[in-house]
Design brief:
alpha+beta, four-stranded antiparallel sheet, 3 helices, globular
């Protein structure tokens, strides 16, 4: 997810970009700022389209997805769990 967001920023924004990663409550928040104020195009699913499926994947895997306008450019933020909670509950239970 981080790679996809940074790749989009580098490909479509004219200037610099900045990525931040924060671990919070068992999830990683990935946030990418770029200097392009135009929101990224989120295309509808199309199995016949070659390429441009990255944001589809980010939205499918992430627990959240948001685009925020900034004074300069925009920031896209998503979150992904570090572990499957159901699996964590099983491994934390003593036998």
């Amino acid at each position: 997810m981080a790679s996809e967001l940074v790749t989009n920023a580098r490909k479509y924004a004219p200037g610099p970009c900045l990525m931040t990663l924060e671990v919070n409550r068992g999830a990683v928040e990935v946030s990418v700022w770029d200097s392009n104020p135009i929101p990224s195009a989120i295309l509808p699913p199309d199995p016949n389209r070659i390429g441009q499926h990255g944001l589809e994947i980010v939205m499918a895997l992430g627990q959240s997805f948001a685009v925020h306008r900034e004074p300069v450019g925009k920031r896209i933020t998503t979150m992904i769990a570090l572990a499957d909670t159901s699996l964590a509950d099983i491994t934390d239970t003593p036998l």
